[in-house]
Specification:
Length: 160
């Protein structure tokens, strides 16, 4: 039986596969930073509006005519903005027309999350635009809310 003799030459500190792995890791970190940049810009836009922030969740897939669409949303505002908050969902068809309020949630005290759940029927083929709006109220039963404290980005729903 022969014993293996260890070579006395030193192996290089950086082998080719290690350099390739480091380059790949650096490229991956750069890509992750590039993808995270737009997300941080969108968050900065929401934070810049100090009065209130509103977001809604709507289906991302196309919907058939006559089907019911469920839309949910929540909003929050600072205590200095208003005493009570109410979240509403608004809609309009295509790019024209005025925004119509579909439904509003119950008023909540400032500092809590104002929530809204809406069920609406897609009546015509085309596009349906949805947005959430956060209103400030002077009292829990205030019939005339002031101007919106915050709004969500417009969601476009395709109806076929």
């Amino acid at each position: 039986m022969k014993l293996r003799v260890r070579s006395l030459t030193r192996t290089p500190l950086f082998k080719a596969p290690l350099v390739t792995a480091l380059r790949t890791a650096a490229a991956g970190a750069l890509c992750a930073a590039a993808l995270a940049l737009p997300a941080s810009l969108a968050t900065a836009e929401e934070v810049r509006n100090a009065d209130g922030v509103m977001r809604i969740a709507a289906p991302a897939h196309p919907v058939r005519v006559g089907r019911i669409v469920r839309v949910g949303g929540d909003g929050r505002a600072g205590a200095a903005a208003a005493r009570y908050l109410r979240a509403c969902v608004q809609q309009r068809t295509a790019d024209r027309g005025t925004w119509q309020t579909v439904t509003c949630g119950a008023p909540v005290a400032s500092g809590a999350d104002a929530r809204v759940e809406a069920r609406l029927r897609a009546r015509r083929p085309g596009t349906l635009q949805l947005r959430g709006v956060l209103y400030g109220l002077d009292g829990a039963r205030d019939p005339h809310p002031g101007p919106p404290l915050g709004g969500s980005p417009v969601r476009v729903l395709h109806v076929r």
